[in-house]
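Q: Structure for this?
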Amino acid sequence: MLNPLRSESEAFRLLLYVVAFFAVLIATVLIARAVF
Amino acid sequence: MEAASISAHATGHDEHEHHGPPPANHSSRVEAPLLGMLIFIISEVMVFGAFFTAYFFIRVAQGDPWPAVGTHLPVEVAGVNTAILVSSSLTLHWAQTSIKNGNRFGLKAGILTTFLLGCTFLFVQINEYANIGFAPQDAAQQTIFYSLTGLHGAHVFIGLLLLLFVTIRSFRGHYSPESHRGVEVPGIYWHFVDIMWIVVYTTVYVL
């Protein structure tokens, strides 16, 4: 299980997940705004 | 010497008697430096949460326009700054991986690059404040903008101080593949600061 506070490597992995999640979120919102 | 040792055993004390307060009791399975950082980061999440509550109150509950009418947020410049900060996490991870593998050059190059990228981020942020064209007291939106980005900037500043210590120690020959907790704990903090910026950038600048 991911515990970002256990080690630097896991904190870095969480950062990558967060970047990916927010990139998808931003893309979705911007596309939705352009379409509707 | 032997007599002293026998005497120490007889009295129940070691030869080198302990001075000062008794050693701390480690009841947790997590190491003390990591546990300290864990509790600190949890408290930091709550601090940011309070500021985000104010942001969402203005924007969602109050329904005020964001940004305030007649103002413009430099989304592109902040986007480049975001890339700089995320890059600094990459170089920090490189430094940490390097010292784990005994690569001292990688540690020094990675940690120095991380520090310089962090300084660049803070410089661009301060430059943004100087040229953005509104002040914190102008409107509620501006107050929240400066509060959220300023709170994050303060965290970057603290992170840079930690990185400065790590950089100096790295160049002075500290850390080894067996002992690199001094890089690991500030590293966790730095990644946390990066994660918070991703949230701040998305909510304040983009959405």
